[in-house]
Amino acid sequence: MASIVGGAVVAAAAGGGGVGVGATPHVLAVDDSSVDRAIIAAILRSSRFRVTAVDSGKRALELLGKEPDVSMIITDYWMPEMTGYELLQKVKESSNLKQIPVVIMSSENVQTRISRCLEEGAEDFLVKPVRASDVSRVFSRVLR
Amino acid sequence: MDYSNLRRQAASMKKSLFDQGYLDEQFCQVEDLQDEASPNFAEEVITLFFKDSARLISNIEQALEKYPKDFNKWDAYMQQLKGSCSSIGASRMKSECMSFREFCGQGNVEGCMKSFQKVKREHGVLRQKLEAYFQLLRQAGPAGAATRPGM
């Protein structure tokens, strides 16, 4: 079940387990598009992750400052004010956050953009529209 | 009420939307995300889409008027709309968005204007058709969102 509170969609996994062993991984999804936010939250929920979805990099950093248990971040690239790349940079610059894997999503398949994100430390780069199979493939590898 | 007949009608309507190019496989991906916890997920996402797309179309309309020949601004707004279309499988609308962006790239004002009218037209048609589809699904009951259309 997912609920929408302010700019955040919070969804609990239907049951325990998730891709990793032990506690259900908590994934932070970041996308300024309400449509894409709903879809990525549903995909993650169907993979049995606990999901918080927010609409900006700023809100993502606020949440990361409060929640110690985020296992992974998946973020859109193009967002106003703070891009997904800028969010990635801030995460990787932070001693508290840099260990959190970050996956970038974008509707545009631009090789230089992909390379730049991977060089900055992104785990993977998914071209939108993102499918459940994409998430399953990437998250299985990263959260193993 | 003959629910199985309503379900057949809904399936037939969906097939028609695919055959006529209004929708593509991504729409099925959205419907596949429905489960017991979110039985109306697809309709909720489509509702979000039309709310969002109406706003974006209004933004573009204002930008066309207030920022003449600002092709970068026009393109940026249309990129957002195209992205949303792509996410829900709104195939014909996405194609018109792409045409608009091509005209932006060419610096072709007239092309942009005509293309934008097509985007609005496709938006209106898609809204009508999907409203009818989901209304039929609601009448058909919980098992209404059945299978992929035969493609």
From TrEMBL, chain A:
Keywords (A to Z) from UniProt: Cytokinin signaling pathway, Phosphoprotein, Transcription, Transcription regulation, Two-component regulatory system
Modified-residue entries (4-aspartylphosphate), positions: 76
Classification via SMART domains: REC (SM00448)
Keyword Repeat: no
Record has Protein transport as a keyword: no
Residue stretches making up the Response regulatory domain: 26-143
InterPro entries to which the protein is assigned, alphabetical: ARR-like, CheY-like_superfamily, Sig_transdc_resp-reg_receiver
A GO BP entry: phosphorelay signal transduction system
PANTHER family found in the cross-reference section: TWO-COMPONENT RESPONSE REGULATOR, TWO-COMPONENT RESPONSE REGULATOR ORR11
Protein family (similarity comment): Belongs to the ARR family. Type-A subfamily.
Function per UniProt: Functions as a response regulator involved in His-to-Asp phosphorelay signal transduction system. Phosphorylation of the Asp residue in the receiver domain activates the ability of the protein to promote the transcription of target genes. Type-A response regulators seem to act as negative regulators of the cytokinin signaling.
Protein's name in the database: Response regulatory domain-containing protein
Organism: Digitaria exilis
TrEMBL record, chain B:
GO cellular component, one term: nucleus
Cellular compartment(s): Cytoplasm, Cytosol; Nucleus
InterPro entries hit by this protein: AHP1-5/YPD1, HPT_dom_sf, Sig_transdc_His_kin_Hpt_dom
Keywords for the protein's UniProt record, in alphabetical order: Cytokinin signaling pathway, Two-component regulatory system
A Gene Ontology molecular function term of the record: histidine phosphotransfer kinase activity
GO biological process, any: cytokinin-activated signaling pathway
Record domain HPt: where: 38-133
UniProt cross-references to Pfam families, sorted A to Z: Hpt
Major subcellular site: cytoplasm
Gene3D superfamilies: HPT domain
PROSITE patterns for the chain: HPT
Role description: Functions as a two-component phosphorelay mediators between cytokinin sensor histidine kinases and response regulators (B-type ARRs). Plays an important role in propagating cytokinin signal transduction. Functions as a two-component phosphorelay mediator between cytokinin sensor histidine kinases and response regulators (B-type ARRs). Plays an important role in propagating cytokinin signal transduction.
Record note on domains: Histidine-containing phosphotransfer domain (HPt) contains an active histidine that mediates the phosphotransfer.
Protein name: Histidine-containing phosphotransfer protein
